[in-house]
Amino acid sequence: MTTSEKRRVSIVDNRPQPSSENQVIPVVPKPSSAVVVRSAHKQYGQTVVLKDLNLTVPIGKIYGLLGPSGCGKTTLLSCIVGRLRLDSGDIKLKGKLISDIGYMPQELALHNELSIKETFTYYGYIFNLSDDAIKIRRGELKTLLKLPSCKLILNEISGGQQRRVSLAVAMLHDPKLLILDEPTVGLDPLISQSIWDLLLDITEKEGKTVIITTHYIEEARQSQMIGLMRKGVLLAEETPSELLRICNCSTLEDAFLKICEDQKAKTDKTITAAPLPVKQPTRRFSYARDLPPPPLLNNKLFTFGRFKAQVYKNINLLRRNIPFTLFVTFLPLIQTGLFNIACGHDPKHLALGVFNEDFNTSVTCSMNRTNDCFLDGGVPVGCLVLERLKEKTFDLVEFSNVYDGEYAVKKSKVWGFIHFSKNFSDNLAIRFNNENSDISDQSNSSQISDETYNFGSIHASIDNTNKYLSDMIKRDILDSYMDVVTSLFNKCKKSEKLGKIPLRLLDPVYGNKNPSFIHYATPAIISLCAFYLPAIYTGATILSEKEGGVIERVVLSGMNFIEIALAQVLVQTIFIVNQTTLVMTVMFAVFDNPFVGDIFPSFFLLTLIGCGGMCFGLFSAIICKTTTEAAFLGIGTNFLLKFLCGLMWPTEGMYYWLRKVSDYLPLTKSTESLRSLTAKGLGFQHPTVYLGFLSIFSWILVFSLVSFVMLKLKRDVWTKS
Ligand SMILES: Nc1ncnc2c1ncn2[C@@H]1O[C@H](COP(=O)(O)OP(=O)(O)OP(=O)(O)O)[C@@H](O)[C@H]1O
Fold this sequence. Notes:
Bound molecules: adenosine-5'-triphosphate
Number of helices: 24
Largest sheet: 6 strands, mixed
Strand content: 5-15%
Helix content: 40-55%
Structural class: alpha/beta
Strand order of the largest sheet: 5-6-7-3-8-9
């Protein structure tokens, strides 16, 4: 036994002892204890925070837990309330239910946007109190703790007032055991004293037990029992007067100093050094089932009161933060509106270089002014093609030679350059005359030279770096040429079909004759909005509560995952339905995107995608410690889904194996299903449609199950980092 342990034992075991066999010993009833901690060991990584710690808190007393900053007081209290789990050791509480204790954490851990009244109501509902009971208790605590007007928002009151509200919340349900982590820190000495008076009052008159930590050692003199901690070890556990007597000191500070020096002299070795022979977590995560059981049990898996509390809080937070609520409500409108305005339209006024050697400038380019048949020569076909290109809004830039034109493309001054050779129209006429003459007239055909084909062709050099623009320029040059030539055949009293290429595009089976990129992208954009907006909202709201320690506090007050999730679903569903309605209205009613299907299945599918997003948000909030981590996860997965789910480019263009992976991602099949429902009008019985529903539904199950399992297995899900 070390000297420090002997010292501790000598102090701890100072109750009346039998001194000799024949002495009559008064029967002193052993006081039952409110909290008993035995051989508690806790470490963070290699840092040992609690080392073989024993502590006994008698019922109906104030137990002052004292020690320097970082000695492990908060860790010990966290283990007692079940916020953390010991690595080894045992904690026994007199009370068995979560509702038997009231815990005030060191940090505020309350919603800053709620009023004092709303905060009381929220925690009152969590502890299943009626509205009347909450009102009465609120009045009592307001007087006892000298709280300001209950209408005030927590953000609007001072830090000291906030701490008193936090203490009031811990006392709201009148628990048997109060565990208070530095309740008087930063408070006016008069207010601190009034809190001590209150605690003395409730221990004496109501038999409550209080464990309190404080940095102000002298104020702890008012407790009936004191535990002195240093470097994770409880050095002494005694009544203040006994402690002073044993140490022969007049102040607790001196007594503490003496005990510390005593310990330091004999056992001053860092407890962070060698790992102790305790059960070490060998896996990346610590699993709850590997650890000693939590000291308190939750009374019920689900209570309507706690669910009501969570809904009440969610609605009040939305009501309090109107700009955020409006933003979340109308963001889909803004996103889809801007998408339709900014994307999908053919680019206009593109600069196109031209060198037309076909005719000299004295020849008119107007179709109206020539009734001649171009097959006879003399009709400026090149000019007419250029006229058509101008009508398609190209800005034509004239060059006087081929070199300058191609140089302008290289210098990115124009997107392309087209050249009509000298006598282009005449050579074109020769080609058509020859091709339309009797096919058996071999002698005529053989007279066409390569030069005629070459001079009778349009030469185009195009900047291909922008695929969409270059494809559009090629398409418009071809369309302009076809328009001109087919019209010219009419003027020659010949069928315009002679000028067409030998391909007849019939009416499209699905979609319209001039499909646009936006028609392809619309279902993708809708799916992304439907998935990510609820994901962001759910993840952000839960994580902001997690970061503020609020969620941990309510979980320690009995709230569980099912209640949090169900309340989130209820409020979020309203948002999802609103968002789906807005997105569909903007996309298909305000803007003219193709919609030929039934509204109901599309609406239902989008709502399911929204629920998938919500479950993903919940999952992110569980696996991420901070909103920054969640933001990275959100941005990362957003890019991934855009690329891999065929939202930007058809999955048919992917490598085989990647396409197989893509099929199982949340937005691949569901987006394809949405496209089939809206643009093709397919029914639910079609595999493309029902597989989309099946896919997103499976993801909802996956996210929910994984979240549930992680909550069961991982012990610090709600602990802020
Ligand atoms: N989550 C954590 N991860 C790693 N180390 C931690 C963690 N929480 C606390 N510690 C370390 O454990 C030790 C004890 O911390 P604890 O908060 O229990 O001390 P304390 O006595 O309550 O201090 P204070 O009075 O300043 O609140 C400190 O060295 C601290 O740095």
